[in-house]
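Reopening: structure tokens for the pyridoxal-5'-phosphate complex, inputs below.
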Amino acid sequence: MDNASSTCLDERVMEAMEPYFFDKYAVATSEFGHSMGVESKEGLDGARKSIAENIGASPQEIVFTSGSAESSNLALKGVLSANDGHLIISDIEDFSVLHSARTLEKAGYDVSYLTVDDEGFIDPDDLKEEIRDDTVLVSIQHANQEIGTLQDIKKLAEICKDAGVFFHTDATHTFTRIPLDVNEIPADLITLSAHTIHGPKGIGALYLRDGINIKKQMDGGFQEFDKRGGLENIPGAVGFAKAVELVTKEENDRIKELRDRIIDRVLKEIPDTTLNGAREERIPQNANITFHYVEGESITLHMDMRGVAVSTGSACFSRSLEASHVIMGIGGDHERAHGSVRFSLGRYSTQDDVDYVVDNIKEVVERLREISPLGKE
Ligand SMILES: Cc1ncc(COP(=O)(O)O)c(C=O)c1O
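Re-run output (same inputs, fresh job):
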């Protein structure tokens, strides 16, 4: 139930990667020297091509990175340092975007933070108003990592296109789960991840629309069209492509049904619960619910003892010791953030799992409420 943090590698992904650890281990740049290098380059090119195809892009628009965090760092820092100007982000972004923006701010760039409504949506009119003559880049996530709210990314990207501003979106939690075609959605840069869709850790990609000038952030050789130096992670890239290929619409529909079962059962069967994020426009794999008058970390620890991994927006669970900036961003107070629990589903989640989780969380919450110092009175 914590697949948003990371998923289990699919065995078919492991099988696809294996030859690139043992027989085909040469570096891709050796393609001009020996046939082993050619084999590796073919593996890398094939992976790049199938990932590109999934979003309607060309292979040369896909830059492999070590994961989403690096992709978003490259997008924000790379664009701003090559095209000096103003940056706009939302205030519920993942830390990889939020902290990149803060680093740029410290370096002297001007950054604006858009607030969201109580379901986590950006108001397109707010974006229009915030864009200035010197705005260079807008970065708004496709879906939120905690509450799962899905933005109207087409509308936001079109506003940026009309204004002549680059648009980046972090699609870590939507890639392959929600269709995204760069021929329909004029996004210029997109952050993509493998380990959230049963692919390997340590590999991700940045879609970079042809012709956009960015400054390389990782110096090294001329790999990745000279956008990211360092030896390519070929087994990772091959595994990433395999993971992309394995996600189907049927799987996404099934996961969505399980998500709805969690939401419907919890809200109906457990009193004083609030769904965080939008009910309809949310990713299929996420349910985030606040259990009022109890603390998320107590629920999390009790559920762990019952064999269930969930996550919470409670402060004590975050290394920063601050309550979730996302729940606070949608207008929640500390109590709502502390009592929030995220359930995130994946390929191997079943209806039995979901029922076990709801039955157990019901008992746990009931008991905790009996002894809770945050009790209603
Ligand atoms: C929305 C989002 N973007 C980016 C990241 C960073 O991903 P990674 O740490 O896998 O590079 C995460 C991680 O949880 C995330 O949820």
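The longest strand covers residues 286-291. The pocket of pyridoxal-5'-phosphate is lined by residues 67-69, 94, 96, 141, 145, 170, 172-173, 193 (CB under 6 Å). Marking as resolved unless the reporter disagrees.
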